[in-house]
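Complex record, two chains
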Amino acid sequence: MTSHPANGLDDIVHQRVRLGILTIAHEARRVEFSYLRDTLGLTAGNLSQHLGVLETAGLIAIEKGYAGKRARTWVTLTKAGQAALEDEIAQLKLLISRIEPAGT
Amino acid sequence: MTSGAVFSGDDPRQLLSGTRELTRLVRRTQRATWFPLLVLAAVTFAAIPFRYSPYRLGTCAATVAVRVCTAYPPALLVYWPTALVLAYVVIAVFYIRRSQARGVGTRVRPFVVAGIILALAMTGSLVWTLYHPLAFTLGPGGLFSALHSYLFAIGLALVVLAWAERNGPLLAFALGYLAVVLVTATFGPVSGHGWLGFPVQLVIPGSVLLLGGIGFLLAQRPWRRAA
């Protein structure tokens, strides 16, 4: 018996906002806090919470610095984050293929 | 603009289409295709006066059928690698500053590295051909010269940029530009000889780069912040 693809979903990644953060970090390679906040339409506090969850899970790395006098926070995807994102996308595609059999 | 509206819901289809939309959004924010095209067009047009600098005779060689001599203005051998390396440095600085301002990383490094390597390799190769003139008898017409030109090296670098940025329109443009370079040099009405020959070979590809730069500028509208 094969397990249902929903069982393969990682609860940390299978969350709308966190999946969005990982997707943006993957495509951008390096993304700034304010870009994530504006693009995902979040408050700074809400975004910080999600970043904390992802950082604790080792899926992203956070680097703080300054650009002139402005404090900047940059987010990069770790190798584990990359693998988790690829796995989530694969599981989503599998789920969709189960919901929508070929030809429908 | 935020993507909150497009990236909503927990349905797998919505999540997957949301990731695709975010990917498109990030790519739009990262791309500044117009800038390298305009810089490289300027470099190409600026090469025209060097065409009229004094030529130096290289070497001659002969086969049973043909005798070939090489001649090249030394100023061009200095101009092209210097101008191209400077251009790629300017492009890299522009992309990095833009990346800092917009808050997303940049994918310009492979393009800059490939562009500089190609410019220097082309210079070495051109110096080599000055002493091996029979290389010019390979292929039809000016095909060897076209493949062995800085204009062709620019096109190859643009292919690398299209790959790095996953930019389909730029890939189509770069391939079209390479075709123009090859056709102009190989089958053009004036294939590099005489007073106007060389400028034609520069003006046509330079104009393609300029028009491409203007086209991408209008399409990408950098004055309207993407995110």
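Note: Chain A touches chain B at residues 14, 16, 19-20, 23-24, 27-35, 38-42, 67, 89, 92-93, 95-96, 99 (CB under 8 Å).
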